[in-house]
């Protein structure tokens, strides 16, 4: 279950989404709707993002094998597991979820796929992300702040990328040569970043 994608494949994101079906990361009463391409409710106002949005974000993120990835707002653990498959056993993925019940459930969902290099933990209230020495190669944010948070931008490593919805606009943040470049990539709706 936890094998890394073949780097020679044309679409590792699609392969990962087939291998780690959304239904395994939904509450029992929502599993029959897993193939629907829209957000589905989890609990406490949180949702499982629609598959086309998740795929677009992961493709924009361009996750390489062996990367260190931070997944902010990991919810059910689906995006954390997908990222875990993309980075493979030489990588590391940390999913952070603020809601304690959702974080515990998401952690169990990810653990069921035998990828010890990917895990979900409860986020620290009032703290965005989790700083690590040298920063994260990739940062995925699945909740929308009102403004681009400098605290998360600072956690992107040199040569790294972050995909984050700000209000309703998807942003790609790239750090290269000490400079930060931000580009826009369409409109989406997300729950607010808390």
Structural descriptors:
single chain; 194 residues; alpha/beta; Rossmann fold; seven-stranded mixed beta sheet; two-stranded antiparallel ribbon; 23% helix; disordered N terminus; methyltransferase; cytoplasm; SAM-dependent_MTases_sf; S-adenosyl-L-methionine
- The CATH architecture can be given as 3-Layer(aba) Sandwich
User: What is the arithmetic mean of pLDDT?
Assistant: 92
SSE topology string: HEEHEHEHEEHEEE
Number of strands: 9
Distance between the termini: 33 Å
* CATH class identity: Alpha Beta
Specify the overall morphology.
globular
- The total of helices stands at 5
How would a crystallographer describe the biggest sheet? 7 strands, mixed
CATH homolog superfamily: Vaccinia Virus protein VP39
